[in-house]
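Consider the tokenized backbone below.
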């Protein structure tokens, strides 16, 4: 059953699609790019869409907390929620990423998305990923199901696809560019039949596992934040995937596993089909420990 009233769900979808389509219609070099940190960029389009999403979602969900990537003042709601069990137990928080995969957006590539995650009591309950280049919207959550819509078509049930795991044959792992540069050679040495798949957006990487393009996704570089993860991992849970760290601990969305200042995850992240995670998590942990995880 949908946790969102149908009229609110429709309004949210219209907002996400409008924002994503606006981004996809901006010619390359028609916007400004700023460096927020080392290899961390934001554009004037991110900033504009951040404001539009915050205002629009506050109108749709006036009683909920809305936390957006580019408005740091909104992050205070995370601390209010996390510091009081009475507040955090039932209050709804939304984490919003106006453009996930900003590097791809800047370079004019396809693999970026608009993402939203709904969290109650520190647990993701639902997620939305809109890939504007493909005009593909995916949403759902545990106990709700998975759904998709392309262009102006009717919503359809999204059926997860589990790829067969046979380590003697070629198999695919999703990994980001930074992690591939740091860990890729060692992983390929340990698993000679592995093929790496890289997409810009964290959400689109998770969708690649849900739809069977790969068996698992690993994220090791320690920079991913709550607006990157809450929506996609809610979808992953709904698909029956395992979401854990390299030690097998479930991914947590509250302190101490989330940095209270940056809202970055302190856990490395593994998202995969159970057969893949069972076979690969421990050896991947050994590879990562040998090289050294970023601190």
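A designed sequence for it:
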């Amino acid at each position: 059953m949908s946790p969102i009233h149908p009229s609110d769900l429709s309004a949210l979808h219209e907002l996400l699609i409008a924002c994503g389509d606006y981004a996809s219609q901006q010619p390359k070099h028609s916007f400004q790019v700023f460096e927020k940190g080392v290899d961390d960029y934001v554009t004037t389009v991110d900033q504009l869409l951040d404001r539009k999403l915050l205002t629009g979602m506050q109108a749709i969900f006036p009683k909920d907390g809305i936390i957006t990537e580019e408005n740091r003042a909104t992050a205070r709601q995370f601390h209010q929620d996390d510091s009081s069990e009475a507040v955090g137990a039932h209050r709804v928080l939304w984490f919003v990423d106006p453009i996930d995969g900003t590097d791809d957006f800047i370079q004019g590539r396809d693999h970026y998305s608009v993402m939203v995650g709904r969290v109650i009591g520190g647990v993701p309950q639902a997620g939305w990923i809109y890939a504007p280049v493909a005009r593909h919207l995916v949403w759902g959550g545990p106990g709700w199901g998975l759904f998709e819509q392309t262009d102006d078509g009717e919503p359809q049930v999204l059926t997860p696809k589990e790829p067969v795991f046979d380590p003697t044959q070629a198999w695919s792992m999703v990994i980001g560019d930074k992690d591939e540069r740091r860990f890729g050679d060692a992983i390929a040495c340990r698993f000679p039949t592995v093929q790496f798949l890289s997409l810009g957006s964290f959400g689109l990487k998770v969708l690649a596992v849900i739809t069977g393009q790969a068996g698992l996704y690993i994220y090791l570089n320690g920079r991913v934040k709550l607006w990157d993860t809450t929506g996609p991992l809610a979808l992953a849970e709904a698909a029956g995937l395992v979401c854990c760290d390299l030690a097998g601990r479930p991914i947590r969305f509250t302190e101490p596993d989330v940095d209270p200042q940056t809202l970055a995850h302190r856990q490395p992240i593994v998202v995969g089909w159970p057969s893949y995670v069972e076979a690969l998590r421990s050896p991947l942990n050994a590879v990562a420990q040998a090289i050294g995880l970023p601190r």
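The first helix runs from residue 6 to 24.
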